[in-house]
Structures are given as C-alpha cells and as structure tokens.
Amino acid sequence: xxxxxxxxxxxxxxxxxxxxxxxxxxxxxxxxxxxxxxxxxxxxxxxxxxxxxxxxxxxxxxxxxxxxxxxxxxxxxxxxxxxxxxxxxxxxxxxxxxxxxxxxxxxxxxxxxxxxxxxxxxxxxxxxxxxxxxxxxxxxxxxxxxxxxxxxxxxxxxxxxxxxxxxxxxxxxxxxxxxxxxxxxxxxxxxxxxxxxxxxxxxxxxxxxxxxxxxxxxxxxxxxxxxxxxxxxxxxxxxxxxxxxxxxxxxxxxxxxxxxxxxxxxxxxxxxxxxxxxxxxxxxxxxxxxxxxxxxxxxxxxxxxxxxxxxxxxxxxxxxxxxxxxxxxxxxxxxxxxxxxxxxxxxxxxxxxxxxxxxxxxxxxxxxxxxxxxxxxxxxxxxxxxxxxxxxxxxxxxxxxxxxxxxxxxxxxxxxxxxxxxxxxxxxxxxxxxxxxxxxxxxxxxxxxxxxxxxxxxxxxxxxxxxxxxxxxxxxxxxxxxxxxxxxxxxxxxxxxxxxxxxxxxxxxxxxxxxxxxxxxxxxxxxxxxxxxxxxxxxxxxxxxxxxxxxxxxxxxxxxxxxxxxxxxxxxxxxxxxxxxxxxxxxxxxxxxxxxxxxxxxxxxxxxxxxxxxxxxxxxxxxxxxxxxxxxxxxxxxxxxxxxxxxxxxxxxxxxxxxxxxxxxxxxxxxxxxxxxxxxxxxxxxxxxxxxxxxxxxxxxxxxxxxxxxxxxxxxxxxxxxxxxxxxxxxxxxxxxxxxxxxxxxxxxxxxxxxxxxxxxxxxxxxxxxxxxxxxxxxxxxxxxxxxx
Amino acid sequence: xxxxxxxxxxxxxxxxxxxxxxxxxxxxxxxxxxxxxxxxxxxxxxxxxxxxxxxxxxxxxxxxxxxxxxxxxxxxxxxxxxxxxxxxxxxxxxxxxxxxxxxxxxxxxxxxxxxxxxxxxxxxxxxxxxxxxxxxxxxxxxxxxxxxxxxxxxxxxxxxxxxxxxxxxxxxxxxxxxxxxxxxxxxxxxxxxxxxxxxxxxxxxxxxxxxxxxxxxxxxxxxxxxxxxxx
Lengths: 789, 231
Hints:
Chain A is of the alpha/beta class. Chain A contains 30 helices and 23 strands. Chain A folds into 4 domains: 5-283, Homocysteine-binding-like domain (TIM Barrel), CATH 3.20.20.330; 298-567, TIM Barrel, CATH 3.20.20.20; 586-659, Methionine synthase domain (Methyltransferase, Methionine Synthase (B12-binding Domains), Chain A, domain 1, Orthogonal Bundle), CATH 1.10.1240.10; 670-787, Cobalamin-binding domain (Rossmann fold), CATH 3.40.50. Chain A is globular. Chain A starts with a helix and ends with a helix. By secondary structure, chain B is of the alpha+beta class. Chain B has one domain (11-230): NADH Oxidase (3-Layer(aba) Sandwich), CATH 3.40.109. Chain B contains 9 helices and 8 strands. Chain B has helices spanning 11-17, 28-44, 74-79, 96-103, 108-137, 159-166, 168-172, 216-219, 227-230; strands at residues 48-58, 64-66, 69-70, 85-92, 142-143, 175-176, 182-183, 187-195. A 6-stranded antiparallel beta sheet of chain B has the order 3-2-1-4-8-5. A two-stranded antiparallel sheet of chain B has the order 6-7. Chain B starts with 10 loop residues before the first helix and ends with a helix. The model of chain B has no long low-confidence stretch (mean pLDDT 89). The interface between A and B is large, with 63 and 62 residues.
C-alpha cells in the first residue's frame, strides 16, 4: 500500500468544491475546454484554488479532469504541457496554505469494452500519460466521476504502475445504487478496494440526501484500510437549465449525517462553491468516527456480486479436459461455441463460471485474454480464472472487470510466489489446493496443514483469509473409498480453524462407477452440509441444481423457498416439441423455419443416410428454395432468418455425426469475413456468416472494427479464395476501400465481395471489389460462383 | 433524466423494421419472434434522456452554428429557418439490451428482431422526450420537428459536438466512440428549432439520403419521416 504518512493522520480531510461551476461563473463558455485555462488564463484557476483554500480545503484537485491526450487532440496543446501547468499553479497556491494537491483524472469520454469499444490497454496508456506528467508535483491522485468500473480499474492500474502516489477513486451512481453501466456500490468497493485504492468515494450525479444511503453501503463494504469520502453536487439540477440550487448552509446541514457513517473526507462537486466548503469545515473537524466494515467473502463482476454464503454454483463446462468438441473450438478459435457454453450454464443457474482454456498446442495466455473479453460481452456472472500458467492468469485478470477468483495455487512455494502477487495486484480472491510437492496428503489433518501454509503465505502478500478458498480435493470413490469422508472432514476443519472459504470440484467422486449422477448429488449434498461454499459442477444436470436448491431451502438460505418455487413451480409443463404430432420432413422444417423440428428430422435422416448426403441433397436444396422465394419477394428477411436458424439447428446433430465418424466435414471452401475498421455494426455480417456456414463454407469471422492488416493476415494464413467485407456507414467506406487496397497490394489471389447499407454496385466497383452483395442470400450465390456448385 | 418505458411496443412495427414490407401480413411465427424481442428489450432497457437549449448564430465565416456545434449542410439550415434558438436532445436505452442481444449468439432471426425492437424503443423515447420539451417550452416559443445528425446532408460526425454540449456521458451515460458512433448503440441525438414565430421545420427529403437507391420505404412510394408510418 502506497499510503504516505500524511494520509494516515486520524482527521477529517476537507476537499474542494466544483471547478466547472466556478469557471462558468467567471465566464467560461459552453463548449470551451476548461483544461486550456492552465495556459491561457492561469490567473482564473489560481483564483478558484485560492478561494477554496481560503474556505478551508486541505486537498485541492488540479484542473486536469479532462486532460487526457486523446481528449486534447486538436486543442493545440499536449496533455503533458497542460497538466504540468495546472499542477504547478495548484501546487503553488496549495503550499501557501499547507494544503495538498491531487492530480484529477476524469473519464476519457468513451466507454471501454465490453460496454463500449475502447480497448483496455489504450485507456491504461492514456491515464499513464497523465500520471507521468503530474507525478513530480502531485501529493495524491484522484480518479473521479467514473461510471464504468473497467475505466476506473484502468485508471487505478495506471496510477499504481507509474507512481507510488496514494490514490482515491470515486464513482458516480444513480439513486438505485448503480452507475449507468450497471456497476453497483458493492462491486465497486470489492473490486477497486481489492486493487488497493487508498480511498473509495462517491461524487457527482446526486446531492447529499440521495448519496447518503449509497455512502452507507460503501462504508459498510469498503475494505477497512481504505478511506471513504464523498463529494456530492449541490442538490439535483433543474432539468431545463442544468443549474444547482442547494445553498451552502443547507448543503452542510444535509452533509451532517455523513459524520456518523465513518467518512474521512468530504467536499463538493457540481454547483458547490467556496461558501459550501466553508460551511462544511464547521461541521467536520477533529477525528472522524471509526468505520467498522462488514467483512464478506465476495466475488464480483461489475454488475453481480456473489457472496460465498449463498452455496454458490460454479459452472465447470468451459474446460477442454475430456471434451473433444471444446478442444476443437479452442484450436479453431470458435468463440461462438465457447460463449454458447457460458450462456447455457448461466441459463441453467450457474452464478459463476470457471474458465479454463489451456491446451498444450495453443497459446494459452492469448486465448485466456480473448475468452475473458468475449465472455464479458455475454454474461454478468463473476469469473473464476483457471490456469496453472501465471502468464495466462495475468492476461485474464488484467481485462477482467470485477473481483475475480483465481483457480489456483497449491502449497508449493513456487506456485504461491508466482500467483499470489498477481492476485494482490488485481484484487482477486484465490483458490488454494490442499496439496504440495509431496502430493495430496492422505489424511484430513495433512490437508489442513497445507491449507494453513497457503493462508499464511497469502497473508504475507496482503491477502486476507476470507479471500482464500481452500479446495480439499475430491478423490475418486471407486479408487479411494475412504477418501470421501477425509475430504469432507478436512473441509469442515479448514473453515472452522482457518477462517477461509471452501470449494470443491464435485464430479470426480463418481469416476469409474455407473449412474454417476446418484453419487454426485449425494456427495454434493454431504459437502454442502460439511460447509462447502463454492460447488464446481455441471449446472446443466438438473439433479445437481436440484440438490443445491434443496440445500438452500433446508439451510434457510432461500427464505420462504422463493427461489426454489420460482425454479420448480412450472417444472411439469413441457415445451411443445417435434415429438408431438406428425413428423415433418427436414426440408419442410427448414422451409418453415422450425428449429426443434429441423433438429429432430436431421437425427431421423442420420439413421439411414450419410451426413454429407443430407447436407448436399436435403439441406442445401431446401435453403435454395427459401433463397429463391426471398429473391422473388414472396418471403422476407424474418422468414429467411428463421429458415437459416432451422438449418443451423439441423447442422448440430450432423456435425456431431461427422465428428464421430472420425472428422470429415461439409467444407466447401474457405471464406474470410469482417466488418471494416471503424464500424461496429455487425448484424449484417453475422447474417452472412450464418448463411454461408449453412451452405457448408468454412467461415473465418474476424468480427467488427477490423483493421485492414488483420484482414490481410487472415487471408494469408487461411488462403481463403473469397473475402467478404461489410460497412454500414458512409464514414467507414474509406476504411473498406483501404482494406481492398491492401489486399490487392499484397497480391493475394482472393476475390472480394462487399456489402452494407450505404453501398451500391457503383461504389463497390470504384473501390475495386470483385462483387457487390446486395443481401445475405446474394453472398451465398457469389460464393457458389467463386467455388463452383 | 429518467424516461418512462412504454407499456408495450408495436409488434407489427417491429416486424416491419425487421424487413417485412408494410403491405405484407406477418405470419404467426414472425409475430411470436417480434413479441419475444419486445419482451427482451422492455425488460432490459434503462431509458434516459437529456435536453438543453442553445442559441443559433452565424460564425465569422458565415456558417450556421449553435453554441459551437457546427450546423453544416443545406438540409439542416432549411429545417432551422426562422429559428433563433434550438433545443438539443439525446436519448439512450442503455447498455444492458446489447448484452442480452449478444447472448442470443447466432440466432440471427431473434437478434434482428431485438435490434428492430430496440431501435423502435429509442424512437419512441425520443418522441416522448420531444413531447416533454414541447410542453415545457412551447408556452413561449414555437418548435420544429426533430432532426438528427446523419439525416440528409447534416453530417453524422456532428454527434460528437452534441454529446459534448449536452454533457451526455456524465448526465445519461451516452458517449461517442473514436469512429463517431453513439455508445450505447441504440441512442438518438437530435435538434428542434425554436422561434417566436410559427415554424414547422423541413425534414430532409430523399435527395441527399445515402440510402435512397435501396430504401424499402421509397420503393413502396413512402417516406421514412412520415410520422403516420411509424404508427
């Protein structure tokens, strides 16, 4: 922890008030950049700082809120020069009053992935530039007004990686206790507190009255060593004028209850003036009340907080071990399949997901990075990053938005020393396997001893016992029958003696025995009763979820059985499927766009026909029929897409059959597709992908916002004879043109088709494309032309 | 400010936005798809909006502008004729709906339906906010209809200045990415002219529209700015 002595003093710290408010009252126009004032009108800033210092502010924020390199593009000044100027003049004023100066870091103005499109490392670099420019002059750094937890993380990492300065982080919440992107107060406290911020706060958006309940949550959830602070607005703004009206006296009055919840620093945001700060000083002097946080073991995303007290289900299916289809997906970079596994598990009730993407023949760190990023676009549940490779763990931890769980360390020094520092840096909790260089201790006491060593080592690295999850290891009952009770006994002891949480992979218990589900559910129930907190299971198995839900009822975790009733009240109603009624032919099902029926019909066909014959003689002709009707205008896009969906559903059993028959596929040729750089509209491109795949083409989908170089590289690597490029907006047509230029320049023997809302055949020709695809159906026709029927 | 979610969205309209011609009857399967999409959108959307009035001026080089927002092109100038002020507005349905859409994976029929329903919701919210503004401001002024960057020859890049003027990232969580695209995606920025004399504004016709050669409305002899069509 980088807290310098000055911050440790047991006193209230008075912060300053609104900067923008003051500057506007001095004549700053809307649309003018306030950051430029440090150079153009330094006397204005000096005056604002001085007035706040005279009013009693002990920490002032330099005028650097929006001074990131990217935001200042086109301003005629660099971030470096504006920040140095702003810091110097603030420092000069502060020193006269014996006060401290903070580098003020505000949002970059663009949402980061996964909510937006800005890359995490780009954001870290932007903030790092600000920190490096200011660190010579700053006493601390304040990251404020954040609404995106990922951006707050990026800023905090930038501060910690580039300086030893103490750092405060504050976010802006709405009255429901969440930011615009859904981040909750608790998730903020767990994640940013876990990463070691010296102060956690709330600023802007609301007035003192509205922020108070949120500040109580924060005071309750923030780690003990962090200071809690608030900087509310002067009430709520007038919706028409945007002006604030809460006067200084009332503001200070409304701030009084904050003294009781244990805040240690107070100030004001929009609409507050030196008068507001002067009044605050009267109420906040001397020693602050002691804050007693409520310590909980939580794992979070930005949106969801999972408490280990709940008997938590961790989905185990994102893991290649023993799963051929998953291994294939990893090798081919088939992210759609991996994501479908996440969606399926969370729909089934998983509250967390284990993420293991290790295979000997792939680049695991790179795959971990891609997978964690992609998973966060489809699910809010917290992730458990599962790898033995510290490099892979770090790649995942860096971009994971929340407080992750790392799976795992063991009692070996090498493992502990490599992985615990990463957990500390990124604020993650950690799983400790009760084994070491001598293997798995056979007795419960042996495993508790290893667990104790892990807990002690974690403490050395600053990780508390409540963030350590011990895995006492499930042994196979068919091989070591007496092991089951040893495991459970160790589990109970660890929890009681060491203050840790516990986790188990359950399914291993039944390996080698018939009807594994029976043993798995029995062992799961026993383990829960023995004190298991996190159960790593396959949530798609109904009996396992039933065991968990039943346990929650019987242990009074699910009060009034609400969750149980919600899950099972309608359990007897089954979905209408293809089983009922008359059997439909595969061609009919595809033409009508009926998924379940198509899958069922495909399975029937597989009993008598070769997979490839079904594709060539039934599926593709059916798709052609639909395509023709679309062309003639007797059937429209919604129906075309439903037929495509039915064909996809039919493909699943066919693919499985091909896999079983020892490989072989319907590959009719390779096609690379992408939405061009600058464009993120990818629905059209995705439709094209689904339709081409249905026709049996092997499609490499590069995604959206794809740089020309990436397209060139993919075409070189795959040797694809056809490339499809999509752009929706006029503003991104130049980047489509550039992509085509680079493909031509490299002399690649591929043909290029282009499509998108604003494209015309003329544009396409001008850009040097070989084909203009007016719609998705047409792209399949072009593919036929290129590859032959 | 928080906007109110409508009780429901027009399923027929969603089918239409998915690519069904207004003359075609939606089949039960497509209707069910649209209904499901409306449900997904209405249960995930977090609607917010903001507006702010600015004055219209001519810049030193004779260009129309509003509080440093450039008003380039002939279409927007025509729309704001006889106005001396303008009210800028922005609405967004938030980020959650996008995640729900991504969860659908390759189910493109439903993805398209959700995309259509989300777009329709954004339009509905813009209507709602415009109506609030009308009630607020038209006691003293006349107000034109709504006009968005990207319509006619009014550059879509203007969105960046609008978002800055409205302080939209801080106030409603609406941002513009480096490619000039609004994030969250289902968001709208627009401007209405204000005047002391009666004004209606002129929405852009098809003349400058980038979609004019392939627009389905136009093929049907209709026009996207027709409010009746939206009902």
